[in-house]
Design brief:
107 residues, 5 helices
């Protein structure tokens, strides 16, 4: 349970056992932190379906299913999440930023 709205997301991940969300990119980060990740089914669930289709998160459709999943023991969440992350993402981000800077310097 989040006690303060101004708490840092990564701090919350570090102290949480379970993360519950809908379709936020924070769900991908939750997986990266190795957290048990539960998702409520919404009309937007398809935008993050890779998480529940590949077994990184559990999709729940109602409160009863959510409670059932919360009560289950937390298993080791060390599944390799490499297939949902872009390889060399940091290098690609640096390249993209350098390209933007270079293009703006020539204008």
């Amino acid at each position: 349970i989040i006690e303060h709205i101004d708490a840092e997301l990564y701090y919350l991940f570090s102290i949480s056992d379970i993360v519950i969300g809908i379709f936020s990119s924070a769900l991908f980060e939750s997986v990266g932190f190795g957290k048990k990740t539960l998702m409520f089914k919404t009309i937007h669930s398809d935008s993050v379906k890779v998480l529940y289709e590949k077994g990184y998160a559990k999709l729940v459709e109602n409160v009863d299913e959510l409670i059932e999943e919360i009560k289950k023991p937390i298993e080791n969440q060390t599944k390799n999440a490499a297939e949902i992350y872009q390889p060399n993402a940091l290098n690609k981000m640096i390249e993209a930023l350098n390209k933007i800077i270079s293009e703006n310097q020539t204008k």
